[in-house]
Fold these 3 entries.
Entry 1:
Amino acid sequence: MIKSRIDIERIQIREHVESDLAAYHEWQSDPAIASFVSWLPKTFAESEADLRDAIAQQHAKQRSKYFFAVVDMCSNEIVGEVGFTVIKEGVGDCGWFILKRFWGRGFATQAAQLMIAVAFAQAGLQRLEASCVHQNIASKRVMEKCGFRCVAQDEKRLRYALSKDWWNQGHLLNSIGVRG
Ligand SMILES: CC(C)(COP(=O)(O)OP(=O)(O)OC[C@H]1O[C@@H](n2cnc3c(N)ncnc32)[C@H](O)[C@@H]1OP(=O)(O)O)[C@@H](O)C(=O)NCCC(=O)NCCS
C-alpha cells in the first residue's frame, strides 16, 4: 500500500483523483511538454482514459503503474506529474512532466526525489531507469541532481539509472548538497 501523500518543503505528490482531469489534460496537451515526449499530446478523451487507468492502478492486485499528481502546496495547484512503470521485477522506468509556466522553479527535482522514495521505500523496486533526448537539458539535470548515472547513449537518447543501493548510500543527498 502506497502512502497516499508525501510532502517535501513546498510540494507534495499524491495519488490521482477523478477531479484532477482538467489539470491532467492540461499537461498531457501542453505543446511545450509534447515537444520532448513522443507519445504526447493527447486528446481530452485520451487524457480521460489515461487518468482512469492511473486511478484503477491504485487498486490493482499487481500494480505496474505509479503516477502521481505534483501539487504546489502554496497555491494547491497541480503543476505536473511524476511516476514510474514497473517494466520487470524490481525495475521501474520513470518520468516527470511539469507545466511550462512552472518550469525552472525546482518542482521536477523535488517531485522526482519524492517519487524515488516511493519507488525504493514503498513499491519495493531495486532500480529506476530514465531517458531523454540529448537536447532535453532540464530532464538531464533532474536525473543528475537526483543521483542517476548515465549508463548508455545513442545518437538520439541518453539513458540513466539509479539503484536502490546507490540511493541508500547517501549519494542522492550528497548530490543535492544536503548533509545529515
Ligand atoms: C524536464 C522538466 C520536468 C523539468 O521541470 P522543472 O520543474 O523546470 O525542473 P527544475 O526546476 O527542477 O530544474 C531542474 C534543472 O533543469 C534546469 N532547467 C529547467 N528548465 C530548463 C530549460 N528550459 N533549459 C535548460 N535547463 C533548464 C534547471 O536550471 C535545473 O538545473 P540547475 O539546478 O543546474 O540550475 C520540464 O522541463 C518538463 O516538463 N519538460 C517536458 C517534459 C519532459 O521532458 N519530461 C521528461 C521526459 S524524458
Entry 2:
Amino acid sequence: MSQVVYITLEPSESDRVDDVPKRQPHWVHPNLIESVDPVKGRQIRASDLIPKGTRVLVDHPYAIIPVVDEPAANEDLICSNPACNRQSPRHLGRFLCSNACIPDVAWCSSTCRDADKARHDFECTWLKRYAQPIRNKWGEYDFGMLWLIVRLLASRDRDPHGENVAPKTQQWKYGWSGIASLCGSSDTWSHEQVRSWTTLVKKYLRDSPVLPHGLTVDRVLHLICQEEANSFGLYPRETGIFPPPHPPVDRGEQYAAAVYPTAAIANHSCMPNLIHKPDQDGHMVFTASRDILPGQECCISYFDLTKYTDLTSRREHLRKSFRFICQCERCISEEPAKETNEWTSMPMMDI
Ligand SMILES: [Zn+2]
Ligand SMILES: [Zn+2]
Ligand SMILES: [Zn+2]
C-alpha cells in the first residue's frame, strides 16, 4: 500500500488575484446524524463519541450577502462570487459591476467577477431598480432580507435540483431541497409581520422579467419565513463559547448574513456543546466545545452569550427574535422554583 502525503499550501496574496478557489463541498463528521424530536423537530445528534475540539460540520452557504456600512470604503466587504466569498480588502483592489448596480457588489479579482457573471446577471437588474428605493423606504434590515431572498432564488435558478453541490450521501439534504425542507412558516410570526412581508413580496419579489423565478407570492412569502427562521449572521469571532470567557470577548461586528442548508438544522442551547464561526470563505464551521456523548443533541447558541447573560434577558431575546421560550438545561436550572412556561420550540438562527 502506498502512502499518500497531503500538503496544504496557504494561498498567498498574489494567488488571490488570479485564482477562483474551487467550491468546497459540504462536510459532515461521520458521527453526526440528523434526527427528529417529537417536540423540537429536526435536530443534530451524535451517533458516537465526538471528542472536544473535533470539527463536526463545514457547510457552504446557499446564499450569502455582505452586511457592512459604507461598502465602498469598508475593508470587510466579501467577494460576490459564491465560489470565493473571501473578504476583499479595498487595498488589494476590487472589481465592481460594469452596470454599477450597488456598491455592496464587488469581486476580489476579474476572474471572480467573470466566473460569477451569469449568477450576478440574475440579481443585477433587480438591485439596480429596487435597492435604493427599498433602503430609503424600508431600511437596511428589510433590504438585506430581500436581497438574501433574491440570492436564494439566484442559486436555485443556477442549480434547481441542487445537483452541483450534493454529495450523494444518505440523509443530509443539500442545495434547494435543503432550503425547501427548512422549518419556518407564516404561523410562526405575528400577523402584522406576515402582512408586512406580504406587501414586500408583492411589491418587490413577484415573478417578473426583472426577477424571473416562476414561484407564487405565497411560496416566496414562505421562503422569507424560512430565511428569517434559519439565517446566520457572520461574525469574525466564535459564537457560543461556554462558559463565556472572563473578561468577556464578544464575537465582533457582523459582516455578512447567509443561509446554510445543513447548519440551519442545529437547535439552540444557552450552554451549547458546539461553537460556530465562519471560515475565510464564508463556510460555517461547527466545532465541539466539549466531549459529546453518543445520543446527545448537538446545539449551538443563536446569540452572543456574552451579551445576554441572565435567564430573563436570554429568554426575552429568544422570544422576540426567534419566537420560542428557551427550555435548555441551563434555563431550566436557573428558573425560580414556581415558574412554568409553554414550550414552543422553533429551531431558528441569528441574523
Ligand atoms: Zn473572489
Ligand atoms: Zn450589477
Ligand atoms: Zn436556554
Entry 3:
Amino acid sequence: MLEWLALARGTLDRAAERRRDQDWVEATWADPRTRVFTIEGGRVLVSYDPGPALVFTPSGKAPEGERYLLGVDDEGVAYFVVRGTLPTIEGAERAGLRRVGALLGDQDSGLLTHAVALEHWHATNPYCPRCGGRTEVTAAGHVRVCPADGSEQFPRVDPAVIMLVRDDQDRVLLARGPSWPADRRSILAGFVEPGESLEQAVAREVREEVGLDIDDIQYLGSQPWPLPQSLMLGFFARARGDQELRPDPEEILDAAWYTRDELRDALESGRIVSPGPLSIAAQLIMRWYGGPLPDMPPF
Ligand SMILES: [Zn+2]
C-alpha cells in the first residue's frame, strides 16, 4: 500500500455520533478551547512561521456564517470551520488546498481537506432533489434536511479510479489529457460509472483511453480529492502481452511507454513534467519508479 498520501492524513476523531446532539454542539462551540478557522471559496488563512499551519481563532472571534464541526483531538479540543468572510490577520496569507495540502501537517491537512469538501457540497446543493425546496444545514454541517418533506441529503463523493499501467518489460504508461499543458504527463484515470465495480472501471477506462486489455489489478490506496468532490482510488495494472497503444483522441493527446531511465531523462531535461506531490498519481509513479521523481513540481 502507498505509505504517504497528502490528503489522507487526517488525525482527528470526527465525532460523528455527537453531530446531532445540538446541546453538545452548542456547548462545544462556546468552549474557550475550541479552535475555529474560516473558509471562503476554498481558501483559508495560512501562516508560514515557523512552518505552514492553519490560522485559528477562538469561536468568540469567528466571523458570522454556517459552522461545521470537523472533529475533536486527543486532548478533547474541538475544531470547527465557518463559511464566512476571511478576516485579515497580520502574517497570514490566503491559500487553497491545492497549494498547501501537501505542506500542512497531518492534522491541519486533514482539517482543510474535510472543510473544502463540505464547503463545496453545501454551496452546490442548496435544494431538495425531491421537491425543489431550499434545504437547511443540520448535524453540525454533515446533513441537509428539507423542511417541507423531511428528507435528508448527505455529502456526495464521486469515486474515481486512477491506475498505473505497466507492460511486460515493466515500463510505465504515461499520457497527456486534452486540457493539460503540452509537457504534462500522468497516469490514466476516470470516474466509476453506476453499476460498475472498481476493477471493471479500471479495465474499461484503460481500454477506452488507450485501447489496452489489462489484468493483474492491484489496489494501493485512496485519498479524498475534494476538487471538487472525488475520492481517488489508486491501482496498479498490467497490460496483457504485446499490444499496440491506440489512444482515444478525445481523451488522450499523447501516450507512451517509459523505462525508468527514459522517465528520468525526460523529467530532468524538462521534456515532460510529472504530477505534483499532492496527487495520488505522483505517489503511484514513485512507487513504480522506486523513489522520488526528479524535478517534481511543488504542488
Ligand atoms: Zn423537499
